[in-house]
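SEQUENCE, STRUCTURE TOKENS:
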Amino acid sequence: MFTHRCSSSVVLLSAVLLTAYVASTPAVGREKRDILVKPDVYRCKKHKEVTLTTNAEKHGDKVHQAGQLLEAECKIVDMDSTHEISIYLDDEPLELLKSDDANSRKASRVLAVSDNGKRLRCVASDNNGKPEHLEASREIEVYFPPQPQAQEDVERCDYKIGENAVINVNVYANPRPTFKWSANPDKYMKDKDYDKSNRFRIQSTEDLGKGHWLVKLSIDELRQSDFERFYYLQASNQLGSSSYVVFIKIHCDEEQRSNFLANGI
């Protein structure tokens, strides 16, 4: 069995090599002959391929930045018929640019922070009514600086004097930022540091996926003075930084409590 590849087909050939021993003369004995029998199977199978590339990949990069233009190109290679091509970001169809090539289409869109982790998809279907469906896809990684704090995300409630407490802050950034906490805006603690009182500690940051980070500060044995100060978090990556402020309270009203639970705080 051997394989031959042509421009648009794969030819599968099977051949049987027979060795026959034919008697010639008693003096010579048996003569060995190789007889090649013609292929008993000859089948061509169309070679189908769809390629998907982005402008970042053309420049040797794999990531994009929020606010920049994503340009995607989808091509159907080695096809005998034309195809209907669509390009999606997750399930959102992107507007296609005009093209003279029926088997090559381009689309573009400005990327947002929320596009990080979405799948860029190229979907092609045969225009001749054949039940063919080709698809290529990849996950898009979008870099962006730490996003500003929402105004309603400042207060934390339901803490009690004498108990241990954990303050959670949701940070959205990609790539992963560095984090620093402080109960004094002029002096920050780095990862897993204690302050001088040994009551404040930065816990391990949780990676919730797609640039979502849950950052935690623990406080041992809450005191009255802990309710009379602000807590500051600074998040920084190579694209920028943001500061977050938290104030803890003993009691919150029901509306505040519902908002905190909805945000996973």
